[in-house]
Amino acid sequence: KIAMANHIGDWERITLQFKDRMPNKLYISAHEFGAYYTYDPEQHIFRYTSQDVRDKRHWSPKYPEVLRLQETHPVVYSALGSHGLWPDSGNHQYRRIP
Question: How many helices and strands (H and E) does the chain possess?
């Protein structure tokens, strides 16, 4: 018997949009939600703009205001024991139990 937990087909992603060969927008996902960031060329960072929650089951993620780059690459972190993607390291609350 093989156990696969409950994450079969739960694909996380990071999506980059370019405009005139420059970074423009970024989307990062974790489970049933994600966040949108807009590139700030003066500071060379992505700034949080909004989020989406595809499944309304008590999700209330709090995303950091800034997603940093290392040279030309966005830096993202995968959650310990999971695979949700986050813009910084540390603990992230994303689910509120009523």
Answer: 0, 8
Residue type, 82: S
pLDDT digits (tens, 9 = 90+) for 49-73: 998 877 666 666 788 899 999 999 9
Residue 13's pLDDT band (cuts 50, 70, 90): confident
0.85 exceeded by pTM: no
5: left (phi over 0), alpha (psi -120 to 50) or beta: left
- Where are the domains positioned within the chain? 14-86
For residue 17, the surrounding DSSP H or E stretch is strand 14-19
